Every structure is written in structure tokens, then in C-alpha cells.
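re: ur msg from earlier - yeah i can do the 2-deoxy-2-amino glucitol-6-phosphate complex, just paste it... oh wait u already did. ok heres what im feeding in:
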Amino acid sequence: MCGIVGYAGGRDAQPILIDCLRRLEYRGYDSSGIAVVGDGLHVHKSKGEISALEETMPTMHGHVGIAHTRWATQGKPTTENAHPFADCSSKLAVVHNGIISNFMDLKDALVAEGHVFSSETDTEVFAHLVESELKGDLMEAVRAALKRIEGTYAFAVVSADGAEVVAARDESPLVIGIGDGENFLASDVTALLKYTDRMVYMMDGEVVRLTKDSVTILDREGKKVERQPQKISWNLEDAEKGGYPHFMLKEIFEQPNAIHESLLGRVETLDPEPFFQTGAFTSVKIVACGTSYHAGLAGKYIIEELAKVPTTVQISSEYRYSSVSRENPLIVLVTQSGETLDTIAAAREARKRGHKTVAIANVMGSAITREVDHVIYTRAGPEIGVAATKTFTTQIVAMYLLAMDLATQSRVMGAQARRSMVGQLRNLPRAVQDVLNKADVVEALAKKYSGVKDMYFIGRNINYPMALEGALKTKEISYIHGEGFPAGELKHGPLALISKESPVVAIAIKDHTYEKMLGNISEVTARGSPVIAIGYEGDTELGKYADEVLTVREVPPIFSPVPVIVTLQLWSYYLARERGCPVDKPRNIAKTVTVE
Ligand code: AGP
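and the outut:
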């Protein structure tokens, strides 16, 4: 996720672009850059937050320009990899939000034609593509270049010779702000509200030419699009959260797209290159903290089922001080921030012990990425809410990809099974969207139970880690005491805690443990405790056992953690909101824990 802005008007573009860009910093903050068209094209970029750009940039005069704040997905967060990118002639500048999945092939072809590249990014390819298509009309050159691109994008392009910004979108957001004698462009309305409240939302496949006095939109076929501006009544603070009351809710709702981005370019072919060329492993050890540890626990079930490789999971701070065993497992370190000290220390320890290491991380260039042999990025975009949501579901997606890799390398998974996995993975965003569409049902139920002091979560098999994660989310943001158990363990102790005052959330999807789960639900209801069950749509049995039923779309059981946990994220969110808790910043907890 990155933020882009554009301006064409009568005022100096530089201060307006920087002001707009600041409001998009939540979309990415590892580097930024600006291009202004005046007497020629002026480009300036800097590593770090937008303040670093402001401190180093010279005054640039000109009435047209573009700017970008980056959240790296391809290429490290360095000044060289910051946007905008110029073509060989330095007459074009391009900013981009999205991922070009066929960029390697395009880059090879462009290099063969003599183009010279200065970065590791996918975006730079587009600057050179436009250059090679440019025959006078910038908009036509952009349209021609887009035909060669696969992936997702919001692009904005300026040329040293023109008083226009040309932009395009496909699956990445882009909105046009209509002013008087000036027009704007941004990744979301937040950036533009100070300047105008009249917005035109661009649709997938559309290209726009923006000048001081005109806005021309063409659809994918090149037909002119007439669309009236909408008047936006949000205040600035509302807009930063995209109209959601909290970042956590916004991030929960971003999950279909986050999962889609995580998969992009990785499951396109049936026999892709594995992520790492280390050969087959006889065992895997996953090391992580908190929510990432729960993703690791889910990973154990996924890897053992798909790749048949024995997998253990350990808390980072425990691994670090554990004794050395004779095993030589692949060590997988899971950390969304990439800065958790316990996990970084565990990575160092693993390397000291001579193990191969892989990190599953969300923040490109974060500390963990320098400590391991290989990184799988989750591409969820920046997560502002302290409670991990979209980074968790994309960690689980990374586990499917890793398991498929291990299975392919050890020849445990054939082409047919892989094809079916890929199909199911591609359906995941829809299963999540279904849950989000029914958020009001979860909200109503959470309101009913928001007054309790204790709440228990039970599940079996791959949904046991989801019970743990549901409990962690609940205690973390609603301050209700939440505990998760494997349902089969209830009778070995926790049943003593069950009472009328402590509802139990039971995950009971139709897998090989379903009948046992029904038995566990009965054990609980027999003691007077209300049960809120999460099951598959169309399950008519569950309602006979549980007091309340929340449903998710039926998916093969191995994929069920994803829609199940989204339901539990909503559940904990609405509990916290009803109790008036500071959802995005729970007491005593930091987003990134850099102490031991
Ligand atoms: C999750 O909601 C928590 N904020 C916390 O458990 C978190 O997952 C943990 O601190 C690990 O963070 P990491 O993924 O950045 O390493």
C-alpha cells in the first residue's frame, strides 16, 4: 500500500503536493518523493518519512506535479527505490501504488531494447514502457503501456513537455478532486478535503487526463466517461480512517484486498519457482510472539497436512533460551512488524545454531529481514491499530504458500492438488467479504454479551489456534478476560470455570472433529453457560446445540481459519466498542515490542 497525489492548477504545486501527501502517510512511510513540472522536470526523493523529504528538497517552481509515499513491496526502502521514477530521457516521471506481477519479463525486454534502470522496483518498468510508447500524446502512451501490464495499479505520470497529469487505476484506489481552475488526484479523499469537497471516484480500467481546467476520463476501450462529482461531507479525522470509526475496523474490512495482494503473482502458474531453493526439509520449527505465534500454530496444521513435514511451534523468547537439539529444522520466524526484539534475537540464535531461516514479515526492510536467509512478505499494507488483524490473515496465507512450496519440493503435492489449492486460495477474499457483509449480525450479538467479565473460546484441530487468537483479541481490546482452549481439554480442568456468567465461543465447522465439538458444546450448555457457535452456512444441526450461531461460507476445513478469525476479529471489536474501550490503542500495549 502506498499513497499517491497529483496536481494541475494555477498555484505552486510543491507545497500543495506535500500537504496532500502528509495526509496519506498512514498508507506508507518508508520513503517518499515528488516531481514538479516547471522549467523542465524536477524530481526529488528521500528515504524515511515525509519530513525527511521536506528537509532535503529544494524549492521547485511549477504548477503541475505528482508525489508519492511508499510502503515497499518490491525492492528495499531506499532513496533509489523511492518514487517517482524517470525514463531514460528524464522527461517522464511516474508514481505507482500496486504490484506489477509481470515486471521481470517486461524489464528483461526493455533492457534488451537498451533501456537503463536505476532501481529494483517493479514501477520503474512503467516509466520505460511509457517512454517507448510515447509518440506525442501522453494519455495514449499510458494507455498503450497499460496493455502490457499485469497486476494492480494506480499510476500517475507527468511529462516535462506538458501541463497535465495522466493517471490510471485498476484495483488500487484513485480519486479525482475537482477545484476551481485546479484539479487534484489522490489515493483517497483524505488527502484532498482541505482543497475541495467535490470528488470523482475512478473505476477499474479507467485513465484520466487532468489539466488546470479539464478532467477527461476514458474507459478501458477508450470511450469517454461522463461522471458527475460527488460532494463529500466527511471531516478530516473521519476521512483518515476512510469513514470507519477506528483503524482496527478499517483494517478488518481491508482483508479481502490484503489477501488478494498477498497472493498476487505467487499462484498464477501451477508450477511456480519455489520461494527458496534450499531443498526438502525433514522438519520445520516456527518461532513467533502473540498473534504471529497463533499464525505459526495454524501453520503447523497447514504444513503437516499439505507437505507432511513435522512442524513444531515455539514462542520466540522461549526458543532463544532453549537447549540445542540434534534436529536441523527450517526455522520460520513470523513477525508482522519485523522489529519484535524477541523474534529478532531468536533469528540470530537460529543462525548461530546453523539453521536455514525464513521470515514471514509485513514491513519491507525491517530488522528481521536482515537477519534471515529468505523473506516472504505478507503485503498487507501498514497496520495502524495495535490489534493485528489483516497482518494475521495474510500470515496464514503465507503459511499456505510456504506449505505448497515445501510440498512441491518434496514432491508430496502433485499438479492436480496444487491446482485445487490455488483455486481455493483465490476464493478466500470472497469468503472474507461474505463475513464482512454480515458484520451487523456479529455487532448485535456482541452488544448482547458485552457486559460479561470472562469469556472462553474453544476449537479443535486447525481452529484451536483461532480459539487462542479470538481470546487474545478479546482481552487485548475489550479488557474482558478471554481464554482459549482445545475443546478436548475442557474436561481436564477448564470446565471448573464454566458458569452462567461466562459465555463460551465454540468454533464448530464441519470437519472430522465436528461431532466431538457438538459433544463439547453440550458439556458447556449442561452447566448453564451460553454458547455462541461459529459454523458453516447451511448447518441446521448447530442451532440445536448452541444458544447463538454465527455462520461463515463453507470452505475446505484447512481454509476455515480465515473466515472464522475475521468473525472473531469483528466480535472482539464490537465488544470493545460497546464497552467504550480505546480500540486502536489498548492500555499498556505497543504496536511493536522492541524490548525483551
Ligand atoms: C496482536 O494483536 C498483538 N498486538 C501482539 O500479540 C503481536 O502480535 C506481537 O507483539 C507480535 O508482533 P509482531 O508480529 O510484530 O512480531
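cool cool. The two ends are 30 Å apart (CA to CA). ping me if u need the other ligands too
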